[in-house]
Amino acid sequence: MDLLAELKALEASFRAEIAACSDDHALTELRDRYLSRKRGLLSDKMRLLPQIDPAQRAVAGQRANELKRLIEEKLQERASEITASQRAAKPDLIDVTLPGIRPPRGFLHPITKTRREICRIFMQMGYSIEDGPELDTDYFNFEAANIPPDHPARDAQDSFYISEDTLLRTHTTPVQIHSMLRRKPPIRIIAPGRVFRRDATDATHTPMFFQVEGLVVGRGISFAHLRGTLQTFAHMMFGSDVKLRLRPSYFPFVEPGAEVDISCFLCKGRGCRVCKDSGWIEILGSGMVHPALFDRVGYDPTGLTGFAFGMGIDRITLLKYGIEDTRLFFENDLRFISQFGG
Ligand SMILES: [Zn+2]
């Protein structure tokens, strides 16, 4: 038996076969046929080594090991060639070793974030969220809110009328009226939503903006409850060190009415650009529900009181994030919007 000659023949047949391999599957089979420990052709030859003449054994053993290395090298080489030619034939072939491309991740609009935060704070205080139509009648938007046709407050809320009697709501107050008609006291709701006014667009005005109003109706509800509620809200929204200041004001649907300021959370009251050096920032309007509203929804006003408040979500968002121009909210420039994260 000439083992050296057999190894030589084996090498020749391997070289012929590997040249014919054209895919990974064929290469795997080829490796098995030659190198498999149990039935590989080269393994068979190596098992014969102990039987041959000791003089030849060292040379044959060395030769067999060389052939094993050669087979492994050639298999690897051929595998690379096959991959390269597959890639060349199909340039869009997916290379799973390349770093991936992250799909773009969505994020919330800053106004949505603020709206959710406001809702969360009031829900923690036991409020439920009410929704209402954006298109409503003159009656619900104005008259039921104690703003009759000749009332000067209508001028301050120049409106988009769809027909003589129908308009885009100018505030979320009609949701309060709808809710009172649907429910019986006690009531504790907030109503966030879009409102519309014919304002010229500038850094602080847009014809559409967002409000949230709150309404509490029950027996024994006092102005102190209003103040306590708004104080709690201001602490949770702007920080526990902000102070509250109420100033008498007029809104047709409340009596008495108050504008509510918080101490400037940016300069801590020392005076800055945002608070116009006053140390105070106006954030909302509020008051005790006008008895005329109870009349209109058919409540017996004996012993019944309530408070209401309303604020601009856009304005709160401007303040909270130090944004200077409210138009940025509606231009949908992703470079702006995406800064507010998820
Ligand atoms: Zn300030």
Question: How would you briefly describe this protein structure?
Answer:
The protein has 342 residues and is of the alpha+beta class. It contains twelve helices and nine strands.
CATH superfamily of the largest domain: Bira Bifunctional Protein, Domain 2
Low-confidence stretches: none
Largest sheet: 7 strands, mixed
The radius of gyration is: 40 Å
> Overall pLDDT, averaged?
90
Distance between the termini: 77 Å
Q: What is the H-and-E element order?
A: HHHHHEEHHEHEEHEEEHEHH
Total individual domains: 2
> Which architecture of the largest domain does the CATH hierarchy give at level 2?
2-Layer Sandwich
Helix percentage range: 40-55%
Could you characterize the architecture of this molecule?
It is built from 12 helices and 9 strands. Helix 5 crosses helix 11 (313-321). With 342 residues, it is an alpha+beta fold. Strand 6 and strand 7 form a beta hairpin. The longest helix has 36 residues, at 54-89. The model has no long low-confidence stretch (mean pLDDT 90). 42% of the residues lie in helices and 19% in strands. It has helices spanning 3-20, 24-35, 41-48, 54-89, 110-124, 138-143, 153-156, 173-182, 223-238, 291-296, 313-321, 334-337; strands spanning 128-129, 135-137, 166-168, 187-196, 208-219, 244-249, 254-263, 280-289, 304-312. The strands form 2 sheets. Strands 1-4-5-9-8-7-6 form a 7-stranded mixed beta sheet, with helices on both faces. The chain folds into 2 domains: 3-89; 110-340, Bira Bifunctional Protein, Domain 2 (BirA Bifunctional Protein, domain 2, 2-Layer Sandwich). The chain binds zinc ion.
